[in-house]
Amino acid sequence: MSYDITLVRVQPGLTLQETLDHLNAGFDPDGDLPPLRLTRTQRNEWDRILRRVSRDIGPVESEEYLYSLTLATVGPPGRVQLDYCGDTGHIEVAYRHSGPATLEVMELAYRIARIVEDESGLSGHDFEVDQPTRTGDPAVAAARLSGISEWAQHHLS
Asked: What is the dihedral of CA 10, 11, 15, 17, to 10 degrees?
């Protein structure tokens, strides 16, 4: 289970929510995911994202899977993972961060989201706290992540 930030290429004439509704309407939870087939433009976007995150943030691990391209930060303040699928993506942060250090990891997640937005044109939204990643406050997200992590540590351990 993880704290997730959604990234999507908003379709012309639609809002972010309408685009997500349209994408989700065609999703079959019992079906196989379609294999990743990026356009040249999407592949170039990924290359720019990977270079910029590595340059601006630090070392990352990167993998190409059947359904997505993935990068994950290496080292402090904690692991933040980006899965990129061309017209969609998501950022995951594990529910294990709590207390003051949580702000650092959420600032990192928001920085990555903003890099993705800059390099790909995807729009990021943090539905956990209902704010866009472009203008949202990572401190609000950190408080939510910390609260859920602390609850889980006390009730699920």
From this structure: -70
Pick from 83, 86, 87, 92: nearest CA to 23: 87
pTM, 2 dp: 0.93
Phi, then psi, of 142 in degrees rounded to 5: -65, -40
Q: How far are the Cα atoms of 23, 29, 56, 155 from residue 112, in angstroms, in the given order?
A: 23, 28, 9, 31
What tokens were used for 145? 């992540």
What digits encode the pLDDT tens for the residues 126-147? 999 999 999 999 999 999 999 9
Tallying the residues shown for the chain, one arrives at 157
Which residue in 4, 38, 13 sits closest to 113, CA to CA? 4
